[in-house]
Write a structure and sequence with these properties.
The chain is of the alpha+beta class. The protein is built from 8 helices and 9 strands. It has a domain at 2-98 and 157-207. The protein is globular, with a radius of gyration of 18 Å.
């Protein structure tokens, strides 16, 4: 699945290198590059703790030590099989049913790593609020730096930018056969991966993967 994600997005986030994207009937190569720009920047992933800048006095090494210790306490588990959906106009893979174990894991990541996070500035808060947040989402933004955590969290692997019809349906139909192998059986959740940026404008790259050992 990781190989599929890297090929689809056109970048391997582990080696930080460009890859040739698949050729799709009816979708020009340059258009596929355009509609995968944002997910390519972040790398193929499912967020547990949203991206954050380090607070003063913290270091990447400290985050890695905490992540390794955290992963040693976590048990591996299986998610229900994935399905390809439109999520607010974005195409993404999501579990076919809710998972309490996943919710507990995501909540723990948000809470336990929060001490490493620099608080967002006024400009970032304004940008987040411009999309239109509920009262609860705004409270989560103020407390945790991101509006879609805890009960607002939804596990997803983003595959495209937000698309309008009829292009969204066209891309979904082209994607479906490529995703089919990952939508037939449960998905094992057995590790925590850290993505990092060396500079704010650079693409995210995988810096470490910590297997669960609980």
């Amino acid at each position: 699945m990781a190989e599929f994600g890297a090929r689809w997005l056109g970048r391997d986030a582990l080696e930080d290198r460009a890859l040739a994207q698949p050729r799709l009937v009816g979708i020009a190569p340059e258009r596929l590059t355009a509609i995968t720009a944002s997910p390519r920047h972040y790398g193929f992933h499912a967020t547990l703790k949203p991206p954050f800048a380090l607070s003063a006095g913290q270091s990447a090494q400290a985050v890695h030590r905490a992540a390794a210790a955290f992963a040693r306490r976590q048990p591996a588990f299986a998610l229900p099989a994935l399905r390809l959906v439109s999520l607010g106009g974005f195409l993404a893979l999501v579990p076919a049913a809710p998972s309490r174990q996943l919710r507990l894991l995501a909540d723990a990541c948000v809470v336990e790593f929060d001490g490493f996070r620099a608080r967002p500035g006024a400009a970032e808060l304004t940008r987040r609020r411009a999309s239109g947040l509920s009262q609860r989402q705004d409270a989560l933004l103020a407390r945790w730096g991101y509006p879609f955590v805890l009960e607002e969290y939804r596990f997803h692997l983003t595959l495209t930018e937000r698309l309008a019809e009829p292009e969204r349906t066209q891309v979904l139909h082209a994607l479906a056969p490529l995703c089919e192998p990952f939508c037939q059986s449960p998905l094992g959740i057995d590790a925590l991966t850290l993505f990092e940026q060396t500079e704010r404008a650079r693409d995210f790259v995988i810096s470490a993967r910590y297997p669960f050992a609980g």
